[in-house]
Automatic annotation (TrEMBL):
Keywords per UniProt: Amino-acid biosynthesis, Aromatic amino acid biosynthesis, Cytoplasm, Transferase
SUPFAM superfamilies on file: EPT/RTPC-like
Lineage: Bacteria, Bacillati, Bacillota, Clostridia, Lachnospirales
EC annotation from Swiss-Prot or TrEMBL: 2.5.1.19
Highest taxon listed in the record's lineage: Bacteria
Residues holding phosphoenolpyruvate: K19, G93, R121, Q171, R348, R390
Gene3D superfamilies, alphabetized: Enolpyruvate transferase domain
Protein name according to UniProt: 3-phosphoshikimate 1-carboxyvinyltransferase
Binding annotation for 3-phosphoshikimate: K19, S20, R24, S169, Q171, D317, K344
GO biological process, one term: chorismate biosynthetic process
């Protein structure tokens, strides 16, 4: 995809539904009794992979592509059926880690894997605590990565544990909370900083007993979950590209409607505020325990900021676009404590720094983040997205303000989380 320097962004947009909440709607809906109707479901490749895995486990799921609506016929905690074929999660880390927790609670064995990116992402972070709960789960190639085999015949029941997670990861926390539904006794997870809490909010909405105190979450086993109707807000991780575009392209004024602003996800809004951005929140609402708002974003003069510590998990997927924003901010931006970026769909620290350097930015990688001296004009370049959707979209926005053409390789990977991204971007500028 070739991106050219473009016009201001004007008008309004609604971005697709939140990816994290869409995954959880399918999973928790499948384990609930009765129908779960999910509106504004994200029909991106990752969430479709979750649907495909649950269909293989015997759950009827109807997809209305036109209306972005998914209906799941839940069969209760013990309603999944054995699957002899290997379950394939494609590119989705959320699917493999959360599903592994659920599969460890079943009385049948499973094999689960994904694409080459998934097969190189760390799974020890879930294998270690799941084994402590009594699960018989192994990395088939003994390299701490997928494929994973879950042998449920040897260990009929899980026991609740209190796990002190070394990483602030919603995927680890959610994996254990979902396994905890099948355990004897309560399951508790303490994390070094609070990660996104969509699992906790949705489980509570469906009838589970979940408590969160500071950095610790606990779940009681064997709840009776009841199917619900959910309206998913727009994904703030997808909105982030348009927030950034409107902030950096002169004369832009954009309304992004119905964006999820759950505080465990909204770190990018705080960072933009610290940078001096003109963003107004309007029409704040709550649905299914999740907050949303319309965001009115105007072009702004930005300044560099320091980002690190407990805010990092609340904006982890937005760091590629925050790095782009920082190139247009006056002064230095330092991003620390973001080493988790190295184990996403690509090594996002290296890929951001490589590609922004190619465009002429003053940027350097550090062990746990990067340092950017803003204000150097960017020029077009060939961008290797490494098939990482967040990289492809962040550099499309950088390309809007670069002199000359920006050529994004493998740009079709945006379909992982935002299939209509390029169409929406072009529409806003006409
Ligand atoms: O739980 C989730 O839905 C997610 C958690 C985050 O990963 P980690 O838990 O690995 O930080 C995030 O990067 C991912 O895009 C989605
Ligand atoms: C890291 C991401 O997703 P996942 O871990 O589910 O692959 C992402 O969407 O940026």
């Amino acid at each position: 995809m070739i991106i050219k320097k473009r016009n201001p962004l004007k008008g309004y947009i609604t971005v697709p539904g939140d990816k994290s909440i869409s995954h959880r709607g399918v999973m928790i809906g499948a384990l609930a009794n009765g129908k779960t109707e999910v509106n504004h479901f994200l029909l991106g490749e990752d969430c479709l992979a979750t649907i495909s895995c649950f269909r293989r486990l015997g759950i009827n799921i109807d997809i209305d592509f036109q209306n972005e609506k998914v209906v799941i016929e839940g069969k209760g905690l013990d309603g999944l059926k054995a699957q002899n074929d290997i379950l394939n999660v494609g590119n989705s880390g959320t699917t493999i880690r959360l599903m592994s927790g659920i599969l460890c609670g079943q009385n049948f064995s499973s094999l689960i894997t994904g694409d080459s990116s998934i097969q190189s992402r760390p799974m020890k972070r879930i294998l270690t605590p799941l084994k402590q709960m009594g699960a018989d789960i192994e990395s088939l190639n003994h390299n701490g990565c997928a494929p994973l085999s879950i042998n449920s015949s040897k260990c009929p029941s899980l026991k609740g544990i209190h796990y002190n997670s070394p990483v602030a990861s919603a995927q680890v926390k959610s994996c254990l909370l979902l396994a905890g539904l099948y355990a004897e006794g309560d399951t508790l997870v303490t994390e070094p900083a609070i990660s996104r809490n969509h699992t906790e909010l949705m489980l509570t909405n469906f009838g589970a007993e979940v408590k969160s105190i500071d950095n610790t979450v606990s779940v009681k086993p064997r709840p009776s979950l009841t199917g619900r109707k959910i309206d998913i807000p727009g994904d703030i991780s997808s909105a982030a590209y348009f927030i950034a575009a409107a902030l950096i392209v002169p004369n832009s004024e954009l309304l992004i409607k119905n964006v999820g602003i759950n505080p465990t996800r909204a770190g990018i809004l705080k960072v933009c505020q610290m940078m001096g951005a003109d963003i107004k929140l309007e029409n704040i609402k709550e649905n299914g325990n999740e907050l949303s708002a319309d965001l009115l974003v105007r072009h702004s003069n930005l300044k560099g900021v320091n980002i690190g510590g407990s805010i990092i998990p609340t904006l982890i997927d937005e760091i590629p676009i925050i790095a782009v924003l920082s190139c247009f901010a006056k002064g230095r931006t330092v991003i620390r404590d973001a080493q988790e970026l190295k184990v996403k769909e690509s090594n996002r620290i290296d890929v951001i720094v490589d590609n922004l350097s190619r465009m002429g930015a003053d940027i350097e990688a550090t062990d746990d983040g990067m340092i950017i001296n803003g204000g150097k004009p960017l020029h077009g370049a060939t961008i290797d997205s490494k098939m990482d959707h967040r990289i492809a979209m962040a550099f499309a926005i950088a390309g809007l303000m670069a002199d000359g053409d920006t050529n994004i390789l493998d740009s079709e990977c945006v379909a992982i989380s935002y299939p209509g991204f390029f169409k929406d971007l072009i529409n806003l500028q006409n």
